[in-house]
């Protein structure tokens, strides 16, 4: 194993590598790494806090979702393409802009930019939001598989007819649906194969965006989504 000379880092990597080889309980982790029990426990618990490790049903540590998220960000061509387009969309709208992906029954913000001044709808990168409310959720669910739609629609603020309309129209809007006082409009982002892989959104206070933000920003949002798609065609 490569040694950096930074003791806590080297030990943490040793813990991660050992668990990546096979799930471990504390005793097994100590044997595999040669670390004292207290040290192995402290490091594993810290890595679990940061979601780099999780526990399986047997109570063993396994690689956590944050590892995949970090790897995805390093090679995420959709995010890279979006980051070339989001600044202009923010400039045009003067509002917060985001890019969302679906992860199971939730959506995660993988890219975001905020306006330099004024009241804003801040969604941190890495934040998980529900798939049951908000324009971004509507877009991602509109193009999700039927089983996922059936599962989520039972608790959603919208119904199947709304999803049909979104697929026909090509964008979604919401006002006060995910969060009181916040409006948003979203459009699907397609990869090089034409599959919907993300949702691009503009969000901000209802007082500025109105209760029908699509009438104001849908065209610009669709143009931004198409610009990302064209970049992916040549990625």
CATH superfamily of the largest domain, by name, is GAF domain
Strand content: 15-25%
CATH class placement of the largest domain: Alpha Beta
Shape: elongated
Strand order of the largest sheet: 5-4-3-8-7-6
Radius of gyration: 21 Å
SSE series: HHHEEHHHEEEHHHEEEHH
- Tally of separate domains: 2
Number of strands: 8
Structural features, described:
The protein is an alpha+beta fold. It folds into 2 domains: 7-64, Winged helix-like DNA-binding domain superfamily/Winged helix DNA-binding domain (Arc Repressor Mutant, subunit A, Orthogonal Bundle); 76-233, Beta-Lactamase (2-Layer Sandwich). The chain has 11 helices and 8 strands. The strands form 2 sheets. A 6-stranded antiparallel beta sheet has the order 5-4-3-8-7-6. It has a two-stranded antiparallel sheet with strand order 1-2. Helix 1 (7-21) crosses helix 3 and helix 6 (86-93) runs antiparallel to helix 11 (214-233). It starts with 6 loop residues before the first helix and ends with a helix. The model has no long low-confidence stretch (mean pLDDT 90).
């Amino acid at each position: 194993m490569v040694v950096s000379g930074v003791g806590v880092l080297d030990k943490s990597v040793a813990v991660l590598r050992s668990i990546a080889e096979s799930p471990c309980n504390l005793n097994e982790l100590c044997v595999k790494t040669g670390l004292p029990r207290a040290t192995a426990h402290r490091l594993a618990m810290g890595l679990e806090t940061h979601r780099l490790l999780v526990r399986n049903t047997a109570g063993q540590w396994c690689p956590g979702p944050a590892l995949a998220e970090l790897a995805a960000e390093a090679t995420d061509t959709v995010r890279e393409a979006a980051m070339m387009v989001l600044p202009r969309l923010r400039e045009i709208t003067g509002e917060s802009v985001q890019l969302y992906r679906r992860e199971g029954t939730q959506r995660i913000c993988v890219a975001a930019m905020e306006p330099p001044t004024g009241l804003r709808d801040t969604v941190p990168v890495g934040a998980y939001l529900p798939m049951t409310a908000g324009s971004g959720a509507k877009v991602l669910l509109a193009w999700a598989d039927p089983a996922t739609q059936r599962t989520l629609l039972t608790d959603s603020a919208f119904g199947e007819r709304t999803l049909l309309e979104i697929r026909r129209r090509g964008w979604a809007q919401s006002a006060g649906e995910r969060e009181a006082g916040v409006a948003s409009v979203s459009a699907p982002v397609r990869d090089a194969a034409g599959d919907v892989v993300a949702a691009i959104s503009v969000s901000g206070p209802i007082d500025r965006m109105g209760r029908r933000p699509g009438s104001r920003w849908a065209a610009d949002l669709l143009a931004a989504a198409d610009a990302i798609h064209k970049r992916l065609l040549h990625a």
